Amino acid sequence: MMAIGSAIGTGLFLGAGGRLHDAGPSLFISYAVCGFFGFLVLRAIGEMVMHRPSSGGVVSYAREFLGERAAYLLGWNYFLQWAITGIADTTAVALYLKFWGIFDSVPQWVLALISLVVVVLFNMIGVGVFGEVEFWFSFVKVAAIVVFLVTGLWFIFTGHEIGGEIPGLSNITDNGGIFPEGVVPLAVVTSGVFFAYLGIEVIATAAGETQHAEKEMPRAVNNVIWRILVLYCGSVLVMALLLPYTEYDEGESPFVTVFSKVGISHMGDVMNLIVITAALSSLNAGLYSTGRVIRTMAHAGSAPQALGRMNSRGVPFGGIVLTSLVVVIGVIINYVAPGRAFDIAMNMTSVTLVLTWGAMIVAQMRMQKKAERGEFERPSFRMPLAPYSNWLTLAFLLLVVVLVASGDSIGLWTIIISIPIILVVWFSWRWVKPSVIRRRREFELNVEHTYVPRNEDPGTNLPTE
After folding, report:
1. What are the start-end ranges of the E strands in 154-211?
2. Per mean pLDDT, which of 57-71, 164-178, 247-261 is the most reliable?
3. Where are the alpha helices (H) located in 337-408, listed in sequence order?
4. List of residues 6+ apart from 342 with CB closer than 8 A
5. SS3 content of the chain, % helix, strand, coil (to 5)
6. Rg over CA atoms, the chain
7. What is the CATH number of the domain that holds 390?
8. 96, 276 in Cβ contact below 8 A?
9. Which of 142, 55, 124, 100 is nearest to 252 (CA)?
10. How far apart are CA 34 and CA 228, in angstroms?
11. Which residues constitute the domain of residue 279?
12. Domains of the chain: total
């Protein structure tokens, strides 16, 4: 529940509204295409997990098959990926709260800051509280989509009006068809749809940490494609059938748009509360993940040691504080450019997600070559049609970067700013490497006579180059 819940966030609950308004019903095609490549990435990660289950996640496999420098880059990239997502999440909460008139006079940046403070406090209390809160957050998100689908299908098949519109194919055929704005808008919104699949890799890594990974992994990954079709594509298709695409707007969750028109008192308010929960859930999971990623990197010598400190409740507060400072930048963006804050965060996150997915695809290719050289036997659960599917996925990821850059000025500046940041992190390895080597020697002395379980990453602190 928590794994699939972590992959459902503001990209669907908020982003789908503006994308549907821009591209029309054809948006479900974009969700299906991005979902297909997300499935291939999961299969690539799944094969590596079956080779060696690891609690180190995607950084662990980058280290094993791409080298320590690549793992160093991916570790900081993964941190930024979730930290910048926090900017999108706090922005989403602020926008959702504006649905209620009582918050109209409250500046957007203040609402974003309050949401950040609340979730940081949840994370600082302890792991047990996080697990309990995130389980229910995830449950509410999945349940909300299921309720939306069931309710939407009921309106479609019974023909009951919604906001003066009769649900059905007529909302598509009478409003320009599947491509009312042409094919170009569909391509443009793909970078935003891509953002909606952030966190999907957690499904594979979580399955790899179960007691029976060999059995759970294939089932978990293969079931993802059906979850994608139902939860993502199904939701968008139902939205298009319930109301004309022009009824949706980027400033409001499409789920709230629908339920505020069904004629049932306060249904829009209830759904708005649920989508706020979804955004807080994503922010909650992001802080949890980045706190532990930074702690691992600090122990490996890839980040300052101070960031690896734990508080008395076992919470890596150093990493959480660093993540919170990045999200505070988002609060400033909400102050300076409240109308563009979400798009800025979405574009920046999409770039980091391209790096994460691309690294996993290349890592699987390296793994396959090692297996072909006889270094080990490939697992039976494999990346389908590799290496052709790998190259196809890499081409798609390159297309996403092009679409981000060509979408608008914000997207172009996102790419321009990202390049020097990536280069700085890549070349900073030269100064970090001695620290990592020192940590490696300490690690080797400590574990010389220690058994390392199969699901732990013995290379967490070990450079390979």
Report:
1. none
2. 164-178
3. 341-372, 388-407
4. 10, 14, 15, 88, 91, 92, 95, 250
5. 75, 0, 25
6. 22
7. 1.20.1740.10
8. yes
9. 100
10. 10
11. 2-447
12. 1
Residue 49 Cα to chain centre, angstroms: 19
Within-domain flag for 300: yes
The DSSP string of 320-353 is: HHHHHHHHHHHHHHHHH-TTTHHHHHHHHHHHHH
Structure-block tokens of residue 147: 């309720």
453 within domain boundaries: no
List C-alpha distances in Å: 229 to 36, 82, 232, 235, 245.
10, 25, 6, 9, 20
In a domain, 464, yes or no: no
pTM for the structure as a whole? 0.87
Contacts of 307 (CB under 8 A, 6+ apart): 294, 295, 297, 298, 318, 319, 322
- In the DSSP assignment, the letter for residue 162 is B
Residue 61, amino acid: Y
* CB proximity list for 89: less than 8 A, separation 6 or greater: 9, 10, 115, 279, 280, 282, 283, 286
Q: How far apart are CA 388 and CA 200, in angstroms?
A: 22
CA–chain centroid gap for 254, Å, is 19
Name the 3-class secondary structure at 165.
strand
Answer yes or no: is pLDDT of 432 > 90. Answer: no
pLDDT digits over 85-115, tens only? 999 999 999 999 998 989 999 999 999 999 9
Give the CA dihedral 448, 452, 456, 459, nearest 10 degrees: 20
What token pair was written down for 378? 């490939």
Residue 454 lies in a domain: no
Distance, CA of 225 to CA of 449 (rounded, Å) = 43
What does the pLDDT look like over 60-70, one tens digit per residue?
Answer: 888 899 988 99
Residues 6+ away with beta carbon under 8 Å from 395 = none
CA 255 to chain centre: 20
Please give the Cα distance from 16 to 225 (Å, whole number).
19
